């Protein structure tokens, strides 16, 4: 396995899956340092006016219900991203309410969005889908405009629980010439066998609070330390709320994690968080 994603230059086939509220720039940089081949942002609206930190050149994932704002957004950030991805899999209530992510099912609209993305960038364009009745129809559209497709073979209804349907993902792979990125329960034990079936894999929840998972897989020297995250978070002026969330995540797997979490939970400012030793 190992088809190129257009002209994208990456050092390996292990990616960090897009995760909203997890993949801030400080965390992404640590994952890269630990050996991750490509990091994704969480989903971002092309109508968003928030300040974006893209200094690490991530894969940027868009979510939208129509083409509004896409052209200008791509123009503004094109130089700063590795590729443009479209989210067609978000199962959240909010997505249902507005009709984006996995609730964007109008094939004409999907085609229109991908066409506008394609027309406005020479960077790779990709999309991320779930298992659904229209997966194969979407695949045909993707083949017209995209350079790779990512499949998370759980249904919208499953959300993040239950087993991902790897056979379904293999069927997608067998029916397309596009490189296929696999997502769903990937970890440091099963990634090798998955890479025999798919071109790339992405790690989601197993990487939360554990950037070192990429070093384990790629044999990159890396020592996890929350202090390193803090340094980067300060450099990029991330919100305290976000830093505190990561502080919680980073306790994962530590011996005294319950005690640490209780301490972190009570902390109300950056200075006190910096005093914590872990
Ligand atoms: C906290 C969290 C946030 C997520 N945010 C996004 C997102 O913004 N865009 C997206 O395509 N998928 C998102 N996902 C889904 C993941 O990218 C991934 O496909 C899914 O979690 C399955 O992989 P895993 O079993 O390795 O976690 C999110 C998942 C989690 C747990």
Describe this entry's structure for a reader.
The protein is α/β, with parallel strands linked by helices. It has 2 domains: 14-218, TIM Barrel, CATH 3.20.20; 226-275, no CATH class. The protein contains 12 helices and 8 strands. The chain has an 8-stranded parallel β-barrel, surrounded by 5 helices. Helix 5 links the parallel strand 5 and strand 6 (148-152). The longest helix has 13 residues, at 107-119. The termini are far apart. The mean pLDDT is 96.
Describe what is shown at a glance.
The chain has 278 residues and is of the alpha/beta class. It is built from twelve helices and eight strands.
Structural topology:
Layout: E1 14-16, H1 25-33, E2 38-44, E3 59-62, H2 70-77, E4 83-88, H3 93-98, H4 107-119, E5 125-130, H5 135-145, E6 148-152, H6 166-174, E7 180-183, H7 191-197, E8 200-203, H8 212-218, H9 226-235, H10 240-250, H11 257-266, H12 270-275
Parallel strand pairs: 1-2, 1-8, 2-3, 3-4, 4-5, 5-6, 6-7, 7-8
Helix pairs in contact: 1-8, 1-9, 4-5, 9-10
Residues 17-20, 22, 42-43, 61, 87, 89-90, 128, 152, 160, 183-186, 203-206 line the site of flavin mononucleotide.
């Amino acid at each position: 396995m190992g088809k190129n994603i257009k002209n994208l230059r990456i050092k390996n086939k292990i990616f960090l899956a897009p995760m909203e509220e997890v993949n801030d720039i400080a965390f992404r940089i640590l994952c890269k340092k630990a050996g991750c081949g490509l990091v994704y942002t969480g989903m971002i609206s092309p109508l968003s006016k928030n300040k974006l930190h893209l200094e690490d050149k991530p894969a940027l994932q868009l979510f939208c219900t129509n083409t509004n704002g896409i052209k200008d957004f791509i123009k503004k950030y094109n130089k700063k991203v590795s590729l443009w991805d479209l989210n067609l899999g978000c199962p959240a209530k909010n997505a249902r309410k507005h009709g984006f992510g996995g609730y964007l099912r109008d094939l004409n609209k999907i085609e229109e969005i991908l066409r506008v993305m394609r027309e406005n960038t020479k960077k790779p364009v990709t999309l991320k889908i779930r298992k659904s009745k229209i997966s194969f129809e979407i695949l045909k559209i993707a083949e017209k405009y995209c350079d790779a497709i990512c499949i998370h073979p759980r249904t919208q209804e499953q959300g993040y629980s239950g087993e991902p349907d790897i056979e379904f993902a293999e069927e997608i792979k067998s029916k397309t010439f596009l490189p296929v990125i696999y997502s769903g329960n990937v970890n440091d034990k099963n990634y090798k066998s998955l890479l025999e079936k798919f071109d790339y894999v992405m790690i989601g929840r197993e990487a939360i609070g554990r950037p070192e998972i990429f070093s384990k897989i790629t044999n990159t020297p890396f020592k996890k330390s929350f202090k390193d995250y803090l340094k980067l978070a300060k450099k990029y002026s991330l919100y305290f709320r976000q830093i505190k969330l990561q502080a919680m995540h980073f306790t994962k797997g530590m011996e005294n994690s319950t005690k640490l979490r209780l301490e972190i939970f009570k902390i109300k400012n950056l200075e006190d968080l910096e005093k914590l030793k872990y």
